[in-house]
Amino acid sequence: MHKVIFSVLTAALAFGCNESSFKTIGSIQQLDPSLEKIIDTTAPVEIIAEGFDWTEGPLWVESEKMLLFSDIPPNKIFKWTEGKGTELYLTPSGYTGATPRAGEPGSNGLLLNKEGKLVMCQHGDRRMAMMDAPLNAPKAAFVPLADNYKGKKFNSPNDAVFRSNGDLFFTDPAYGLEKTMDDPAKEIPFQGVYKANEKGEVTLLTANITRPNGIAFTNNEKTLIVANSDPQKPVWYMFDIDEHDSLYNERLMYDVTEASKKEKGSPDGLKVDKQGNVFATGPGGVWIFNNEGKPVGKISVPEACSNVALADDDKTLYITADMYVLRVRMKN
Questions:
Q1: What does residue 260 show for φ and ψ, rounded to 5 degrees?
Q2: How many folded domains does the chain comprise?
């Protein structure tokens, strides 16, 4: 039987010997005894920031001891620190055009390259780009890294991951277009998963996923995990990668069709910790899989969760969840 520990919104909830000064939300659900090695089922899910439109792309920057995250509709990136809380970090973040537009124009996924520069999935500008400024002195100056496939603009790059050699793998659904799949500005007829090398050369890896979203490597970089946020097929796929970077051996990691009928959210962003455990946002919160792809637990959240970030040597998990940014302490 699933072991569920419920917590309610409260301003003070103990964690270990420390008291949390944050409100909490949700619960930890145990699906397998091995979850106890990863997270305490009584750990509070803290609301460290709130009041946003739609948060995404959390990124912990160890050098600055800050969490960056996108608020997509208002075209902004915010930062959160333990000492100062939430501050505006960068605007505009994903759309630099002069014509006002609706929808989700801001940045989505955020990550750091090998040189420690901030790289972002820019919905509105329909490209992968790097901020041309130091992390501690941000400004809206961007260097495009990839903005088209065979001369056609991307839809709206959504999430991305760097391989250790500098190659950038990213997904390109249509969520950032004003009319999404039906937008007349859509130039590519499919939603692709791509690779851009350090020269900016773009390779299509697959066009067979209907709504590719979150993306991550397993620790040996030989397998790619891609979330499909299509409500008609809410699943996580796994692909092996050959020596020429072609994807093969496509298979399902997990199917959450039944869960998606009952709970908010679809497969979205994901991260892999040093033990190979996968933390993947999906229906009802954050699903925790072991390194064999078996679900061992779930951080249940009543709002749709979009992505996660690991910090403090995998001892802290940050979660973007609709109007909230959440934090959970772990055991790793």
A1: -70, -20
A2: 1
